[in-house]
Amino acid sequence: KTALARAGAFSPAVTRDGVEVLVGANLGSVPDARAAADNGAELAGLVRTEFLYLGRHQPPTTEEQIEVYRSLAEALGGERLTLRTLDVGGDKPLPYVPQPPEANPFLGMRGIRLTLAQRDLLDDQLRAIVAVAYETPVSVMFPMVSTVDELADARHRLDRAIQLAGRGRPAGLQVGIMVEVPAAALKAAAFAPHVDFFSVGTNDLTQYTVAAERGNPSVASLGDPLDPGVLHLIRAVCRAAEGRCLVAVCGELAADEAATPLLVALGVRELSVAPSSVAAVKQAVRQIDRAADADLVRRALTAAGPRDVRAILG
Ligand code: PEP
Ligand code: MG
């Protein structure tokens, strides 16, 4: 890469009318964090902590986790780490978590539902997250939240972990939820007072909105995140968050450069993508003339389907 291209990769992503959009990376390993830093990521918008838990016979200890989270932060040069609590379930079983078989694992015990039921898993992870939050800016993000009660429960566990640490609240600690259940998107106003950010997980949000299992090739064509039904939900989140908290997108849609102007027009102010997509998404933000393009939003939301939305996006 030329020096000029590299300098571009590291400068912020600002629209032509001056709206800044944070561009972060999704991480599933320590090498991912290095790649994110090399590509100009401004934060880790999603750390899929599952990588620490899969393929072993017992959960990682708090100490092991601290070491790995620290390595991620170091590789990222001290940028903010958004640590998502363990997001496994019936489709991704762990040998050390007792789980009865389920007919519909995607509608069963997964994400925050599972870890609230397996408190030790959650408490050990929150202790590790809190320990690292005293050293580097950390956001904790809860997956698959569908009710405000679940968030209250999870926040309570987090407060307890902070209390146990005995050092007060870590200064840079932020708390947010993944919005990947349609009910959570529609209730965003009820969640907003209790979070610092929302991060829309368009992969699961799409699966649940169009009722098409992700990864099932027979229904793959239905699972398009540009389905106007999904876009209506993203708009609902952005409206509820306005003036209160940040809205990020960390699902695959965030890396679709054609969709960048629409997401920004809806009010999204952080995009988190695979490390290799960071530079291109920053570039897509810089090409936006007007961040608040109400006409683009109106046309996309009234389109008949994803194909029409794509045609509008050009
Ligand atoms: C999502 O659902 O969009 C998401 C980012 O989470 P994951 O792909 O890990 O389920
Ligand atoms: Mg998800």
From TrEMBL:
It comes from the Bacteria. It is found in: Cytoplasm. Homodimer. The dihydroxyacetone kinase complex is composed of a homodimer of DhaM, a homodimer of DhaK and the subunit DhaL. Belongs to the PEP-utilizing enzyme family. Component of the dihydroxyacetone kinase complex, which is responsible for the phosphoenolpyruvate (PEP)-dependent phosphorylation of dihydroxyacetone. DhaM serves as the phosphoryl donor. Is phosphorylated by phosphoenolpyruvate in an EI- and HPr-dependent reaction, and a phosphorelay system on histidine residues finally leads to phosphoryl transfer to DhaL and dihydroxyacetone. This is Phosphocarrier protein HPr. It comes from Kribbella caucasensis. The lineage of its organism: Bacteria, Bacillati, Actinomycetota, Actinomycetes, Propionibacteriales.
